[in-house]
Design goal:
Strand content: under 5%
Low-confidence stretches: 1-26
Pfam families: MFS_1
Protein name: MFS transporter
Largest sheet: none
Organism: Streptomyces ochraceiscleroticus
CATH architecture of the largest domain: Up-down Bundle
Radius of gyration: 21 Å
CATH superfamily of the largest domain: MFS general substrate transporter like domains
Keywords: Membrane, Transmembrane, Transmembrane helix
CATH topology of the largest domain: Growth Hormone, Chain: A
InterPro entries: MFS, MFS_trans_sf
Mean pLDDT: 79
Length: about 425
């Protein structure tokens, strides 16, 4: 296998002679070879570093806004309503922004979209500082809906670079999922630290600066950018693509797993007198997912993609039963260990799912397809958060609420299995 990996060529767009550089030596450690191969392509390290800078604020903005608004207005209800409206607006506007990115290119669309989003964040800070009416907070936060899907744009570049190399694309998608987990694990921690250690607006201001700088640097990496796909006629809606709607429903259910798991875990920790440890417990779940994503990228994709995705969803459905057992022990430490294990199925599910989206989406609509997947996830997270909160209030903080993520995972598996029926009938 090592010889096969070392000898297989990496397909990438031609690089001008004056910009060609000697590719880094492949490390002797065999398990690092797949990642060394993808980052040996010129330009990949630069756009990845810039994208990580732009992606980190995605885990900061909501927490920063809640801490800033609740601290100044004394209302968590208002803070939650503002962030919820912003999330809903992003779900609506995001696919349209991604469609423009596909049509006109990342470099032309992403910077102005990020600039408008940053202006919305700055307007929110001013409204809070000036004690403006509550409706102005909603209006300001609505402007952040144009935030470009930086993770989707990075995945689109990998899909373009390795469009004829499924093995390398699998590794790249695994890395991207691990990067998502790291950003959403570190982002809230950084936001909470800045808002409490410095001043309430520090988290939002830092996130805005990182977003703008990261997007500008990312957009400046032109040689790895996918070419735009101008459309002279009305493009067919992606929601009508065979196989894509069931896949998006699976993402919706998977998002419900994430959202409910977070709320129920916080309720469990609060009910057992360790609320301050809730962040650490959730970080272990994210760490398990991150580690699983990186390890998954080292393995060659085996079997047909649809069957592989079904297997990953099935594993997630089984492992999401573990938190119910861990909570029954009444020990936060036991629950933390269980969540570390349970989280190991989510990254492979997301990696394989994003790969399926790329395979089912036309080349000129990749950003739009990936953003639709993220939109479905966001909608699922919002729904799961509400369901998890209801379960915690009505069933108590003893961990019975973990039935919600378990049910959401089971629904994801059901939708996946039902979605494969039409394909089997056609076959």
């Amino acid at each position: 296998m090592i010889l096969f990996l070392a000898s297989r060529p990496v397909t990438a767009p031609p690089v001008p002679a004056r910009s060609r550089r000697r590719t880094p030596a492949v490390p002797r450690l065999p398990f690092l070879r797949p990642y060394a191969r993808i980052f040996a392509v010129p330009g990949t390290r630069a756009f990845t570093a810039a994208n990580l800078m732009a992606r980190l604020p995605m885990g900061m903005f909501s927490v920063s806004a809640v801490l800033m608004i609740a601290g100044s207005r004394g209302s968590y209800a208002l803070a939650g309503a503002v962030t919820a409206v912003g999330l809903a607006a992003t779900a609506v506007v995001g696919p349209w922004t991604a469609r423009l990115v596909d049509r006109y290119g990342q470099a032309r669309v992403a910077p102005p979209a990020a600039l408008l989003a940053v202006a919305g964040s700055l307007a929110l800070v001013l409204c809070v500082r000036l004690d403006a009416p509550a409706w102005t907070l909603f209006a300001a936060y609505l402007c952040t809906a144009t935030t470009p899907n930086t993770g989707g744009m990075s995945r689109a570049r990998w899909a373009h670079l390795f469009r004829t190399d499924p093995r390398a694309l699998h590794t790249a998608n695994s890395f991207e999922q691990a990067a998502d987990e790291v950003c959403f694990m570190l982002g809230p921690v950084l936001a909470a630290f800045l808002c409490t250690a410095l001043f309430p607006e520090a988290g939002t201001l830092t996130g805005a600066a990182l977003l703008l700088a990261g997007v500008l640097l990312f957009a400046g990496q032109r040689r790895t950018e996918p070419p735009p796909a101008p459309r002279t006629d009305r493009a067919r809606s992606l929601l009508r693509r065979p196989g894509l709607p069931p896949l998006l429903l699976t993402f919706l259910c998977t998002g419900a797993v994430f959202g409910s798991l977070e709320v129920v875990t916080i309720g469990f920790a609060d009910g057992h007198g360790v609320r301050a440890a809730a962040g650490g417990i959730l970080a272990l779940q994210a760490a398990g997912s991150c580690a699983a994503g990186l390890l998954y990228g080292l393995l060659p994709p085996a079997g047909r993609p649809a069957a592989r995705f079904t297997g990953c969803v099935a594993a997630m459905a089984v492992l999401m039963l573990l938190p119910l057992l861990g909570a029954a022990s009444g020990s936060p430490a036991v629950l933390a260990g269980v969540l570390l294990v349970a989280g190991m199925a989510t990254a492979p599910t997301m990696v394989t799912g994003m790969g399926r989206v790329q395979a089912l989406t036309p080349a000129g609509q990749v950003n739009e397809g990936l953003t639709l997947a993220v939109t479905a996830l966001l909608a699922g997270i919002a729904t799961g958060s509400a369901a998890g909160g209801w379960a915690t209030d009505h069933l108590g903080p003893d961990g019975s609420g973990y039935a919600v993520p378990a049910t959401a995972a089971a629904l994801a598996l059901t939708v996946t299995l039902l979605g494969r029926l039409p394909a089997r009938r056609r076959g």
